[in-house]
Every structure is written in C-alpha cells, then in structure tokens.
Amino acid sequence: MHPAISIIVFSTFSGVGFGIGFWLGILGNGIQSPTIVIAGLTALVWASVGLISSVFHLRRPTRAIRAFSQWRSSWLSREGILAILTLSCIFIYIVLRLFNINGLGVLIMAWIISLLSLVTVYSTAMIYTQLRAVPAWNTVLTPLVFIGFSLLGGGAFCFSFLPEFISRDFMFVILALLVGAWAIWILWSWRRDRIGMGASSVETATQLGKLGTVKPFEPPHMGPNYLTREMGYRLPKSKSTQSRGLAVALGLIIPILLYCIVFVYQDSGVANVSRMLLFCFVFFGIFISRWLFFAESRHTTMLYY
Amino acid sequence: MTSLPKSTERKLGLVIDLDVCVGCHACVTNCKAWNTSGYGVPLADESPYGNDPSGVWLNRIHSFETEQNDMSALVHFPKSCLHCDDAPCVTVCPTGASYKRVSDGIVLVDESKCMGCGLCAWACPYGAREMDPVAGVMKKCTLCVDRIYNENLPEEDREPACVRTCPTNARFFGDLSDPDSEVAQLVACRESVDLMPEQETSPVNQYLLPIERYGADELASPDFNLASLANQKSGGVLSWIDNLLNGN
Asked: Domain range for residue B35?
C-alpha cells in the first residue's frame, strides 16, 4: 500500500496525543494542576496535528464535515466522532483543573478520558483492520499494535517531559510498554511476512485454477494507474530490511539504553538529557514502523496485475 | 446511509463469458466514452498521450495465461465493479456518498457527497474503484444507470455500454435474481463463478469459465498433443484441393 505521509502523520501524532490523554486520565488526579494543564494541552496539540494532517489526504477537504455522519457502519466516521469527543473532554477537564475544581465528577471525568482515548485509538486501528482486502491488516494484532504504540508514545512523552508523572511504578510501566509494544509489532511483522495475500491468490481472483497454473500475461494498460500507484507500492527487499532494523534500533534498543542511563544516573545532567531523548527516539521508531505498516502491506487487487 | 440493505428487490448485474471474450477492449473503450460524457463528472485522463499515459477507467481487461500438462491457454479477463451484495466499499464510506440501491442492487457513489478519502478503493478487493484526479471524487461502474432506464434511448440501447458494444457477445446484462432472465439461465447452464469468494463479498456479477474442450484424462495422455490435431488427414475432393493448393 502507498505510504501516504498525511496518513502516517495522522495515525502516529494522534496516537501519541491520545496516549498522553490516557495517562493524563489514569494519573492526572494525583498531579498538580499546572502540570495537568501542560499535559492536556500537549495531548490536544499532538492529536490535533494528526487530525489536521488526515484532512490533507482528502481530495475534497471542504466536505470533511460529512465524515461524521456514517457512524453506524463506518469506522472512519466513528474515529472522527470519538476523536472530537475525547479532545472536548480533555479540554473541559484541563479547564476544570485550571480553576482548581476537584470533585468526584472531575475524578470520573479523568477515567472517562482514559477510556475514550483507548477507544479512539482502537477505532483508528479498525479503519485498517476491517479491510479484508489487505490481509496483513485484517487481524486482531493491528489494534494491539496501534494501542501499544499509543500507550508507549504517550507514556514516553510524559516520562521525558513531565517529571511529575514519573513514579517508581510508572518507570516500570514504561519499560514494560517499550518491550511489550515492540514485541507486538515484531509479531505483527512476522505474521505479515507469512500471510502474504491470505486466502486469496491469483487462482481465487480469476477462478481459472481448474485450467492449471495461472499467471498474469499482460496488464490492461501499458503504464501504471491509480490502482497500481495506490495498492501496488512495493518496498525493495534491501530497503525493507534496513527500515525494519532502523525502526527497532531507534524505537526499542536506543530507548532501552537511555532508560538504563536514567535509571542508573538518576537526577544527574546525563540522566535528564537521556530522559528527554528517550521520547524522541521512541517516536522516530514508531513513525518508521507506521511507514512500514503501509509500505509493506499488500492488497489483493494486485493479484490481477 | 452506508449500511447495506438486507436484500434488494432485483439484482442487476453482468454475466461475462470468459470462453468468448477475445480481449479486443471494445467494452473498455465504449465504457470510457459513455462515462466521460454521461452520469456524474467526466472520467478524467491525467495524461492521455505521451510516454506515460494514465487515466481513470471503470472497466479494464486483464489477460492471464494458464498452463497444464504443457497445454497453455490465454484467457482475456474483463474486470469492472461486481456490484456485490456484501459490498465492503459501501460500509467503510464515512460521508454517505457510497450506497447500494434497494430497488436494483446497483452500487453507486453520490459524487456531490464524496470527499475523496479513497478508503472505499482500499476496501474493494477487486480494484473496481478509481479516484478521479481532476474532480477529486471516487468513480466506479454505475452499470450505466443513465442508459438502462433512459427512455430517450431506443430500447435496444438500454443496456450498459460495455454489453451493447461487445462484438463477440461475451457480456450479458440482466436481473440475476429472476430465474427466468437470460443471465440467470446462462449462469444455470454454464459453470459460473464468484471472484474471490473467500473475501465474502457475494458478488452479483458472474463469470462463465472457459469450456473444457478436452477432458483431464485426454490431456494427461502421452499421445495427446496439439500437433496431432493440426495434422488431421482429409480425403476426397477436399484432400485433392488441399494438396493442389500446397503444391504437392
């Protein structure tokens, strides 16, 4: 599949934004209001950058408002509605906290933000998961990849830039998320390599199998077309290996080293720099993995080519 | 609403005879000609001439080679929207632009609502939808909805452009839910197939497979070869003319 930059920015940035939203909801009630306001605004900015980026993928962006109408059947529509709802809740929550309004309602609201953040990221993933025509995406692992990277991205941001969020427990959660989210990604990639076109093949696509082995003889046109440009993107094998290595190195291995430095040299200058770098590397790693999510997945339409 | 109807009153669709299609691309050309001037915005050509031609087409003909026991065959394979009963392209649409009609089962795009996100093209396993690069809306086969009900056209023209133009009668149009229709009878008497049944789209359009002219046993026999078919001995007057013409 063609790795459109607008879509990659959309899903990674909104993933981090709603990830911050999730941790804000879980941990926010025990944290002072200035930090909460900063965390909330950061979540709003990251998620908004993502949502605005998605509009650049539309050929008729002025009609984007219609995308909220088909929630009964369309995951894309549900994602849009949930994203706006979650962002509104985060906004209201930080306003309440800004004016030091604390009560049971505000406490419950924080939990609702966490839940909504998770459901929003889930619905982002379902936009891709629902497509049977892309067998690599059509698995329960896809929402797990998106949710894993969202929680990791949001958590790593809090870890790097919002020291008030860091507790001993949270330190271990970050380590677990680092290892867990990347383990799910590696499992997803492993499955993707094996699934190929899934149950579909050139024989099922043409139903000519009873005439023997089937192979494409000539395409309909001399050159590429919308379908081959959109669904026929192929990553060269060498570039694939490099990119996979780079994603894991930047997103997992370097952050683990940085994490160890933070753990060993607590509160020193080196530890503070390492702490801030951790999110940057994690995010680069997630970004490359999301690029691979598109670039390496194949669409059944290409069986006809 | 982009929810699919539970059932449709009719199932208008195409039956394509792979035994007959010669891959002449007349249906492709007539489809383009009609649809660039008919329903909705024109079918754009980003680059119609030059070294790298590219454009939007609602019907494309692929060709496949099959091989078995050293026997190969070339099968021309027209492909357009199959107007699936469980069309995945419709349910993913966030704007309500895509819909399946209850009255006749045709899957259409309301171009005034489409925002050009392209998700429906991703959802279709067959590659039946193409984005119009000029209008920025999704285009697809309409089953020539602006021909089949068009009372300004002579009655014989009230069928899809591809069917009307096919010089070999490889394409048929009709109501597949009516067992008495020509298309339903064709499907009943020939070996007809759904494309990619594992995708669970329940396509309405049916493909008639090439007729097997030689049985599997015959093909597997060591004595069977194409050359022997070509060297059939004739006798009598025809043989005399044959020899005369060959200068023997």
From this structure: 12-218
> What is the set of domains in chain A, with CATH numbers?
5-211+232-304 (1.20.1630.10)
* CATH number for position B204: 3.30.70.20
| Cβ contact, residue pair A212, B61, below 8 Å | no
pLDDT of residue A223: 85
DSSP states of B71-131: EEEEEEEEEE----TT-HHHHT-SSS-EEE-TTT--EEE-TTT-----HHHHH-TT---EE
> Is B168 touching A (CB cutoff 8 A)?
no
The amino acid at A21: G
In a domain, B102, yes or no: yes
Whether B231 maps to a domain, the answer reads: no
Distance CA A272, CA B210 (A): 71
Chain B touched by A56 (CB under 8 Å) = no
A residues 214-273 lying closer than 8 A (beta carbon) to B: 214-227, 230-231
pTM across the whole model: 0.92
Q: B64 and A202 in contact by Cβ < 8 A? A: yes
Least confident interval from A5-14, A109-118, B40-49, B77-86:
B40-49
Alpha helices in chain A (DSSP H): 5-27, 33-55, 75-98, 104-129, 141-161, 168-195, 202-206, 226-231, 237-248, 254-264, 269-295
Could you report the per-residue pLDDT of A184-226, keeping only the tens digit for each?
999 999 999 999 999 999 999 999 998 899 999 999 988 889 9
The answer to whether residue B223 is domain-embedded is no
Tokens of A256: 């683990």
Q: Which residues in chain B are contacts of A6 at CB distance < 8 A?
A: none
Q: Does B70 touch chain A (CB under 8 A)?
A: no
Chain A touched by B224 (CB under 8 Å): no
Residue B229 is assigned to a structural domain of this protein: no
pLDDT at A177: 97
Closest chain B C-alpha to A163 CA, distance in angstroms: 40
Prediction ipTM score: 0.93
Share of chain A above pLDDT 90, in %: 89
| Cβ-nearest to A217 among B1, B65, B97 | B65
Nearest chain B Cα distance for residue A206, angstroms: 6
A120 vs B214, more confident: A120
- The phi, psi pair for A166, rounded to 5°, reads -80, 120
